[in-house]
Amino acid sequence: MPLDQEFDKETATGDEMSFIDHLEELRWHVIRAVGAILIFTILAFVYIEEIYHSVIIAPSQPDFWTYRMLCKLGSFTGAEGLCIDKLDFELQSIGLSDQFSMALLSSVIIGLLFAFPYSFWEVWRFIKPGLKRSERRAARGAVFYVTFLFLSGVAFGYFIVAPLAINFLANFKLDPTIQNQFSVTSYIGLIAMLTLACGLTFQLPVAAFVLSRIGVLNPRFMREYRRHAFVVILILAAVITPSPDVLSQVLVALPLTLLYEISIFVSGWVERNKKKDAELDAREEESSAMGEPWNPDADM
Fold first, then answer.
1. How far apart are CA 233 and CA 271, in angstroms?
2. Rounded to the nearest 5 degrees, what angle is found at the Cα of 240, between the Cα atoms of 263 and 174?
3. What DSSP designation does 81 have?
4. What is the DSSP string of 214-230?
């Protein structure tokens, strides 16, 4: 039986789950989510050499996809400075266990990334039955949108933000006689931090939905402070891409600006539907109090 139908049945009969039953159900959702992460972590560790060579180390090479696209963009726009021919640094393992520990850490991070859709789905399955009918209707497709935004943010961080940051940091020198030799732990830490941070940043529309739903945020506030938000976005883009090149900062700022505009739309959509949802909830509670079945389709 689907969870939403099960919840409706429990609500109608008054046979609600006890606190211990909720904990038991939560425990199994967590076990399944952790199991998925563990499976992907093991698979990643098995193929860790191929993953390192083709994915993790790739942004440190001048022939990486992003650098080739930037070179084409530079040729098209006349900004030859975008073409990256050399990354003046080398990676090294200093500690005796650095490579093994990085293999384990990288496998766990990859496991989290690949298992995220299923893990979030398990969490959503636990939360969803406790929501009101209008809240479940408003949050329809939550798993898809959260997953899509998170993976889009990770891709943006990996293909755009991380290469730009690596390029700047690798070619920045206080003096030409100083050679850049970075430890593999610092390199992996930078890649992981930027990709995961972008994945979380791309959840801005979801955050706007939740905050608007509970009444903390509204579209008027976001429109009023739009200029302030743009300044913050430009500062954030400058921090993420510590390069004097304006075009690279624009490449980072544009998606963040688009996310903010989408968040305004989402907040406005939530506000428009709040009144209607409140009326439907009131009718549902009234029907439940009278012991009559309630059909929401009859009110539409």
1. 25
2. 170
3. G
4. TTS--HHHHHHTHHHHH
Under 8 Å between Cβ of 192 and 158: no
Chain centroid to CA 217: 20
Q: Furthest-apart CA pair in the chain: how many Å?
A: 84
296-300, Cβ contacts within 8 angstroms, sequence gap of 24 or more: 296/133
Structure tokens at 39: 């499976």
Q: Has this prediction a pTM greater than 0.85? A: no
**Residues whose CB is less than 8 angstroms from the CB of residue 218 and which lie 6 or more positions away in sequence, other chains included:** 212, 267, 271
Segment 103-108 shows an average pLDDT of: 94
Which residues, including other chains, have CB under 8 Å from residue 185's CB and lie 6 or more apart?
A: 95, 98, 101, 102
Place of tokens 């969870």: 3
Give the domain ranges of the chain.
1-82+90-201, 203-290
pLDDT (tens digit per residue) in 212-233: 888 888 889 999 999 999 998 8
How far is Cα 272 from Cα 120, in angstroms, rounded to an integer?
Answer: 27
